[in-house]
Each structure stands twice: as C-alpha cells, then as structure tokens.
Write a structure and sequence with these properties.
Order of helices and strands: EEEHEEEEHEEEHHEHEHEHEHEHEHEHE
Largest sheet: 7 strands, mixed
Shape: globular
CATH topology of the largest domain: Quinone Oxidoreductase, Chain A, domain 1
Bound molecules: zinc ion
CATH class of the largest domain: Alpha Beta
Number of strands: 18
Number of helices: 11
Amino acid sequence: MKALYYNGSSAQYKEDAPMPVCEPGQSLIKILLANICNTDREILKGYRQDFRGIMGHEFVGEVVESPDQELVGKIVVGELNEGCGNCIYCRSGREKHCLSRKVIGMSKDGCFAEYMSLATHLIHPVPEGMRAEQAIFTEPLAAALEITKQVHIDPAMNAAVIGDGRLAYMIAQVLALTGIDLTVIGKHEEKLASFSPFAKTKLLKDYYEGEDLCDLTADECFEYVVEASGSESGFPLAMHLVRKMGTIILKSTYAGTANLNMSMIPVNEITVVGSRCGPFEPALKLLSEGKVSFPDVELYELKDYEKAFASHAFKAGFRF
Ligand SMILES: [Zn+2]
Ligand SMILES: [Zn+2]
C-alpha cells in the first residue's frame, strides 16, 4: 500500500508498504482523508526522534474489519492515544496519559497510508450525512473542547485567545459559543480578519508598542487567557493579560523554554491549566450541526507530500 514513513530524519513515500496487521481488539480502517497537523511538521523537525513509522493522526476512514460488526462499513474518525488498559491512568479515564501508550503517527503507525489499524474503542462513527471534509476537523476541535471540560467558563466574564493560527481558530469558535466577551490577539492582520465574525481582534504589536504591559487596568485584562500562539512569548504575555485570580490555559506545545517571573502566579493567585486532547463526541456534534465550521482542506495525493507540507492553506491534507 501507499504510505508516508518517517525514517528518523525525513519523510519517505513508499508504494510497497506492508498492510497493517490488526492485534486483538483492533479494527482495520481504510483511510479516505488525512490532514497534516503542526505536530507532523514538528516531527520532521525532530520532535519525535525515536519514532520510525507511518506519520499522521488526523483522519476520516471506513472500517473494513472489526471485532465490532456494527462498525464495519461505517465512516469513522478516531482518537490518537492507545493506552495499556490496565494502569491507574487507563482505569481512571486518563488513557491519553498512560505511560505505555502508543500514539498513532508518533509512536505507532499512523494514517498517512491507505490502511491503518486502531484500537476499536477509540473509533467514533461520523454522523450520517456529514461530509468527510468537515469530519476531518474532529480531532483538533476536540482538543479545543477540552478547555471547557477542564475550566468552568463564566460567560459573564471575558476571555482572550493568544494566537491567530488553526488551533486558535478552533478554540475561539468554541469559546464564542458560550457567549463570552472574546478577544483574539495575533500577529497577522489578514488572519485576524477571519476571527471577526465571532470575536474582537487585536494586533499583538499594539501591546508592545502602545501600552505598557505592566500598566494594564483590570478592565483591559482577562478572566481567562488561552495561550495558543505556538511561540515562547505567549506564556509571558498571558501572565500580563490575565486578571488576578484568573486562569491561563496553555494549549501550544513548542520545543523552547520560557523565562518567567514565577512569583506572579502565587502573588496574583493565578490558575495555570495545561490542556491537550479532548472529547470526540461533542466535537462531531458541533461539526454536524454546523455550529462551528472551517475552511475546506487543500487536498493532495500522498506522493505530493512535499507540496502538502509546504502549503500555507488553513489545513492541507491527503485524499486516498
Ligand atoms: Zn493534530
Ligand atoms: Zn495504561
């Protein structure tokens, strides 16, 4: 089958990759669409140096073989983290934190291939009539929804999202649904324009040129600040923008280290919440009901992976 391998330093396209073999409890999925995530780009930069295997974790596919006969023939999406099923994390609903978990496209073969195997309990059928081109956003949207699972959002307060990329776009759409007074802070005027139907927008440079960050009034600060910029400067900015006793939610993962005045956290009694993968079912529901929507994916053939990875589209992916 066709597949895109990570060989420890770069991506490699193959047409003679062996078909995946299902272990007990796994299903075989024929991949229809697969999206490139920023994490895939980070892998090519060396984020997962020990990994050797097929890349990719965002997909829509059709189940062709499964211990659950009801799933066969269904169009599905799937979660990334396959836990051991036995440890305290797996037994207490924290499978994504299992120490011996396998993550598709990062520590086990992923979805940039014609077929992939996946633990059956991680598979979610796509609602009838929903386009694969929207269902493909389930995984990143679920990650945005994780915030509302972790933090009680008081819609009478205000919130800021730092960042104007894809992740920020999903998070902002989810927060906007609560009715909260929402501001998105970013570097790029043209990207910020796409947020204006559902959020106020502000250019990052206004904070660094016009106002002294230390002199912001309580009204200029935010009860909730979500850091989704993907850059090292995001967290220090969040510390200035958050109100006393407010909450910072950290969404971006990046390779660097931030230099921070940590005493602001106890003195201002700030809550800092780390946030990763989230619930699939509500994400599918929001997408199928059209309560959130995203620009169409720019689709490529797998062999044109270099063009796909270089794309500046909102999302680029592969059609099989
Ligand atoms: Zn992803
Ligand atoms: Zn486990």
